[in-house]
Amino acid sequence: MQNKKRETFSSGLAVFFATLGSAVGLGNIWRFPYITGMNGGGGFLFIYILCMLLVGIPIMISEFYIGRKTRSNAVGAFRKLNKDNFKFIGLMGVVSAFLIMFFYSGVAGWVYSYVFKSLMGTFKGVTPKQAENLFTSTISNYGTAYLWQVIVIVVVSTILIMGVKNGIEKVTKTLMPILFILIILIDIRAITLSNSFEGLKFLFKIDFSKVTKASILVALGLAFFKLSIGMGTMITYGSYFTEDNDMPQTALKVAFSDLLVSLLAGVAIFPAVFSFNMEPTAGPGLLFMTIPLVFSKMPFGRVLLTLFFLLTSFAATTAMISLVEVPVAYLAEEKKMDRKKAVILTAIIILLFGFLATASIAGDNFIASIKLFGKNFFDFFDFISSNILLPLGGLFITIFIGYVVKKEDVLNELSNNGRINNKNILNAFVFVVKYVAPILVVVIFLNSLGVFGK
Ligand code: PFF
């Protein structure tokens, strides 16, 4: 191996929490509720879960395999498997990581700023209208929003410079369980609001009448985004896995925990939406407009609200660590760049383009008036990464695992050379990776292009 002794996570539990730390983030708490809200609720959720089961989990397992087998970054992994022709998958992943970071760091900045605002008591006794205005002013003052984004990027870079083990492990292991408990507390409060049942019905009643062709692609993209797959993050993380880790099981556990956190976030938000007469289709501001209301009339509301945004900011931070790790591991290992330099270079690129995203969503300025394919920079970065590059990356990974790599190799690695007895799971995995996942991705792409009729 050309790299010096490569670090690994210290135990199975550390693997689980670090991987979960990548999966659980703004995707669950911010994105899942608002996207589900915009796409009609329960029917969309149903399609999302199918995408997660039939496409997401198999791709996650495939990425773990590639990563641990080669102990390499997303690009080097394909080189080590002697499949240079497939290096482009890793390179696409590096591009996706940047595109996602451009807007993700901005949204994380909103969250950081909400920690501060909650602490100062800004939301005490707010009405729905005021909560909406506070959000609008947060994003429209893009100078301040950008400042928070810069703080986010500095925090993430600092943790990354500290290294894989110390940085990632410690943070995730402690904080995930606390976040989980806090969301359950919010759920209890949300369910006891008046009219909360309407919200639960919206989220859980399977109704396809509002599901469009475009929203099926959105569900697929959301699965990729939330599970951090299709761009080599899980290849990179797999490369730090311990030799005895049961990777299919880890993938299942991570995917279901990720789903659970999303559903709990949905149960916190939708009852509030209906109880306060707001619109589920409100878009990216949904979380920021509803959660302060849930807490505003609660004992210790201010403390709990601050804690909620604080923990959400931690979840966002661990997810970003894994995102930035993709280009950093690539630059450090393939381009032989000093790790610290790689982090700094990556941070500078994110700072530059991140500004475009943040200014473009503020409205009423020159950058916001620029449109790429009819979208502002924020939406453009988001759409190209989540709905195009990640599913495409995932498609290539399934083809690679299903048709290029030797099946025995995959089965050996995924059973830890026969040490775990998981034949049934592996058979199902091979079948899905070969015949189900790639076909579904292609069909969903074609469908969204209108190939099967309007
Ligand atoms: N899965 C993260 C979330 O749901 O917030 C976002 C993310 C992290 C996407 C890492 C992609 C990735 F590689």
UniProtKB/TrEMBL annotation:
The keyword Secreted does not apply. The keyword Zinc does not apply. GO terms for molecular function: symporter activity. Signal peptide: none annotated. GO terms for cellular component: membrane. The chain crosses the membrane at residues 12-32, 44-67, 88-112, 145-163, 175-194, 214-238, 259-278, 303-330, 342-363, 383-405, 425-446. Keywords: Membrane, Symport, Transmembrane, Transmembrane helix, Transport. PROSITE patterns: NA_NEUROTRAN_SYMP_1, NA_NEUROTRAN_SYMP_3. It is found in: Membrane. InterPro entries: Na/ntran_symport (IPR000175), SNS_sf (IPR037272), YocR/YhdH-like (IPR047218). It is a multi-pass membrane protein. Belongs to the sodium:neurotransmitter symporter (SNF) (TC 2.A.22) family. This is Transporter. It comes from Thermobrachium celere DSM 8682.
